[in-house]
Amino acid sequence: MSIEEIRRLITAHAHKENLGLPGVRINRITDPTKPTPSIAEPILAFSMQGAKRIALADRVYDQVPGTFMTVAVDLPITGHYVRASRAEPYLGFALELRSSSIAELLVEAASGLPGILKPPPPGISINPATSEMLDAVARLLALIERPVDAPVLAPLLEREILWRVLSGPAGPTVRQIGLRDSSLTYIGRAIRHLRSNAFEPIQVEELAQLSGMGISSFHKQFRAVTAMSPIQYQKRIRLQEARLQLFKRPHDIAAVAHSVGYSSASQFSREYRREFGVAPSVDALRMRQEGEVTA
Q: What angle do CA 53, 56, 61 make, to 5 degrees?
């Protein structure tokens, strides 16, 4: 099967809320979009048509047809579709990365996989998709039209896709997701703690302890994965949540600032403007007028 068949399947089924394939997402975008902040969770995301751009701190990633993006940990990104139209929509396929599925493959075939990278690799990478990967993706998507076969064949095809990824350049990164003692897993613990306690004061010493590292080593490895410091990461999470709340409460800026952990409304406004380019009051009004929701 070819990338043309994948495009056909995405076009035919992108409108469906339930594909009958757990962990699989497809999307069809017909217009370029504005840069939008969000939290990217562990995923493989293939571009089949059009193009999108992802920014993580000062790193920028452009994804074009025939490539796949690997996100290894929860990351606060800003993304937008830069090439999409009604004549040629953006078409994408994504597969959630589950540590249990990766771990099973590692147990069965660890000897045939690339070694672990130390220090940990960046949390996002983009690589060309092989013909074998695309063939497996096409066969997986074809199960949308054969729902009777899906419960049996979908898990096998997910394993095949993961194996193709693990065997290639992105393998050392994805492999770490399935290992309990990898450096990426330890950084992931700190990230999950940060997300769960984003609106509370944090102690970097506590995060380093959770990761089983010294403070200096933790700082270095956290930045290697996320392209930012723990404090910057927390700030991104807070401001993204504030932006979502402002859509719902555009006239209550002080209360929103307090709810996401800011004791000073003026500091909140300064950091919000620095992050999104406009004052929170202006941004809130614009979002309400345009009906834009970000998360």
A: 35
Tell me the CATH architecture of domain 3-177.
Answer: Sandwich (2.60)
Which DSSP string corresponds to 92-103? EEEEE--HHHHH
Q: Where exactly are the structural domains of the chain?
A: 3-177, 232-290
* Distance of alpha carbon 11 from alpha carbon 97, whole angstroms: 24
How is residue 288 written in tokens?
């309400």
d(CA 278, CA 273): 5
What's the pLDDT at 18? 94
pLDDT of 182 strictly over 80:
no
Q: Which two tokens stand for residue 137?
A: 């993706």
- 288 DSSP 8-state letter: H
Same fold flag, 3-177 and 232-290: no
124 band by pLDDT with thresholds 50, 70 and 90: very high
**Angle of helix 99-109 relative to helix 150-166, nearest 10 degrees?**
70
pTM over 0.90: no
CA atoms of 189 and 201, how far apart (whole Å)? 17
Q: Tell which residue, 52, 19, 17, has the closest CA to residue 38.
A: 52
DSSP state of 252: -
pLDDT of residue 177: 85
Alpha-carbon span 104 to 113, nearest angstrom: 13
What would the CATH number be for the domain defined by 232-290?
Answer: 1.10.10.60
Residue 288 has a pLDDT of 75
Q: Which two tokens stand for residue 121?
A: 């690799």
